[in-house]
Amino acid sequence: MLIGMDLRPNPSRLMVYISPIIAVFLTILAAMIMFKFLDVDPIQAIKTFFIEPISSLEGLAELCIKATPLILIGVGLSFGFQADIWNIGAEGQLTIGALAGGGLAIAFYNTESVLLLPAMLLAGILGGMAWGAIPAWLKSKFNTNEILSSLMMTYVGLLVLGYLIHGPWKDPEGQNFPESRLFHDAAVLPILLEETRLNIGSLIALLVVVAALVITTRHVIGFQIKVLGMAPLAANFAGYKEKKLIWLTFMLSGGCAGLAGIIEVSGAIGQIVPTISPGYGFTAIIVAFLGRLHPIGIVFAGLLMALTYLGGDSAQITMNLPNAVTGVFQGMLLFFLLASDVLIKYRIRFRGSKRVKEPIK
Amino acid sequence: MSIEWLIPIILTIVTAATPLLFAAVGEVVVEKAGVLNLGIEGMMVMGAITAFAVAVSTDSSVLAILAGAFAGLLMSLIFGVLTIYFQSNQVATGLALTIFGLGLSALIGHAYVGKTFRGLPKLNLEGLSSIPIIGPLFFNYDSLVYLSILSVIFVTWFLNKTRTGMLVRAVGENHDAAHSIGYSVTRIRLGAILFGGTMAGIGGTYLSVVYTPLWVENMTAGRGWIALALVVFASWKPWRTFFGAYLFGGITIFQLYAQGMGVELSAQILSMLPYLATVIVLVLISRDKEKSRLNAPACLGRNFHASG
Q: For labeling, which of A1, A125, A154, B253 is most exposed (least CB within 10 Å)?
């Protein structure tokens, strides 16, 4: 073999931060090759994808709107991923959160109360938690694989949404479209920036990021989660309750996803529609990894991924490319990131160079 | 008393079960080798669009099947290289494979929306296929149905009776021991992963070329994940995936018939059945912690590095 790999004595801290940059760079390179194959001018395509969408104030506001659910869900998922507990059903938890909160808006239609919005947000969080509680309960009680059960519940959650808007929650004056009625003003999140759709939801997301930062760096829960992921036996010896952590991580991630859902429907959308999320729950998995499972990193990763959504839309409008390009982009980014992450634990050795001796442990 | 009304139902159950069976049998081999590939959905959907594109442009079903299988193989090659040579986390890589596959298939499929294909010809044996009841039940399917059943038999034989099959299982149970007595863990695992990808690709092919011979975005609709659940359901025994796949095929078809017969439940509620059934089956199978630990390959999901 021309190239070999040596295990580093300690994981490289530097590479933890360099690897996402390498991944982004390689993704753009690969995307340019892909555009070449699609007979599109690569430079023009990259410009349409990454520069045009954010070259206006309105574009920047849209970026924040799209980044908000990604950051919220990404932060929530990062707890579970650190503990090696895999909630991949955030999309379903987002949907049920949106339905729980949005249901309040429909039930109290035209009620002018300052309490309505806070109640909707709370209902959203609880809805997401309730949907996350199913896989958490099944895993802690029956040892059921949480990856599969949380994903199956996502399909069920999307069907619940379909049932409600085709049936009981359909807008009575909506000419039979499968949509709820538009929420009245008291059930819509206040706008932060005039002339844009940027709403208070983005501020709420920032607050959640700060809270997550405190938990991960200053609270014993954050420490326990990390130990469980890195050394389950040690966590066991130290007396951390695995079941408690399963519940905790699912409640955190489910609650964040539910909050993201209600912010979507009571913010940018303003009603319940058949497609509440273009796959935020799945993209947030990439966001969590790209952000190194750290709240600050997740903010940057969320903004970048939000840009791929906007880029997909703008490429569809101006260059007539199908917006599925966004999914290809996101998948490639995660591939390159996972590949570059090898540099954290391993050192690349070329033939001829001397094998680095490991210190005696 | 005639049971002839049952025959068309059974025929549709078989076609609903076949894609699941291909994907699940492939994944049994992958997981037996100690690798958890969560990207079945992505490999299936790429198999589906590639096969459909080739079917429409060449009008050859053989080429379509080969192309679908090859697309699955290429997808699994990405997974294999990342997890084996780049030591990436298997769960995350599998998810990436699914996200990537769904995106790329939608991109390629853009040009094929609204086209149709004639499907695969049915087996027609002089005499046999025309026997009442037995003929249509056993001798009147397309070639892929028979291939899926042959593959169950082949994989059962391969894992239990052949030397290579035992090596696959050894690598899955204890990769360090297999490595220390001189077997190439990486090569065996890569082989298993590629086999699983090929099978998932054929499963996807069945969806777009036979089951519903047209292209719809995300047409796998979670079947890749159900196939993963089937592997757990089957306790990693290939022949049991057969029963699992037909059980789920049955639930899917029951749900469609119930909708057709005007059951007083909305279409959405009935469509939840296969997903809820998957969860219930998972609970029943994994309830006994000790037993499910014995069944699962011991090194499942753990990466191997020779110097580590």
A: A1
Q: Where are the alpha helices (DSSP H) in chain B?
A: 6-32, 40-58, 61-80, 90-109, 134-138, 143-161, 163-173, 175-180, 185-206, 223-233, 238-260, 267-271, 273-286, 289-295
Between residues 142 and 201 of chain B, which touch chain A (CB distance below 8 Å)? Answer: none
Contact status, residue B232 vs residue A147, Cβ threshold 8 Å = no
Q: According to CATH, what is the number of the domain B6-295?
A: 1.10.3470
Collapsing DSSP states into helix, strand and coil, what is residue A195?
coil
**With contact defined as beta carbons under 8 Å apart, do A249 and A150 qualify?**
no
- Contact assessment for residue B39 and residue B79, using Cβ atoms and an 8 Å cutoff: yes
**pTM to 2 decimals?**
0.88
For residue A360, is pLDDT > 70? no
**Structure token pair of residue B216:** 């719809």
Q: Between chains, do A144 and B104 touch, taking CB under 8 Å as contact?
A: no
For chain A, say whether B295 makes contact (Cβ under 8 Å). Answer: no
Check CB contact under 8 Å for A148 and B229: yes
Query: pLDDT tens digit string along B250-294?
Result: 988 888 887 777 666 778 888 888 899 889 988 988 887 777 777
Residue type, A22: I
| CA gap A271, A173 in Å, rounded | 14
Question: What is the distance between the alpha carbons of residues B78 and B94, in angstroms, rounded to a whole number?
Answer: 10
The count of CB pairs under 8 A between chains A and B is 141
* Distance, CA of A326 to CA of A331 (rounded, Å): 9
| Residue of B217, B232, B275 with shortest CB distance to A155 | B275
A145 vs B contacts (CB less than 8 Å): 229, 232, 282, 286
Contacting residues of B for A138, CB less than 8 Å apart: 279, 282-283
Distance CA B224, CA B241 (A): 14
Q: What is the dihedral of CA A329, A64, A74, A219, to 10 degrees?
A: 150
Domain boundaries, chain B: 6-295
- Cα–Cα distance between B156 and A3 in angstroms, integer? 38
B12 to chain A nearest CA, in Å? 23
Contact call for B88 and A342, based on CB within 8 A: yes
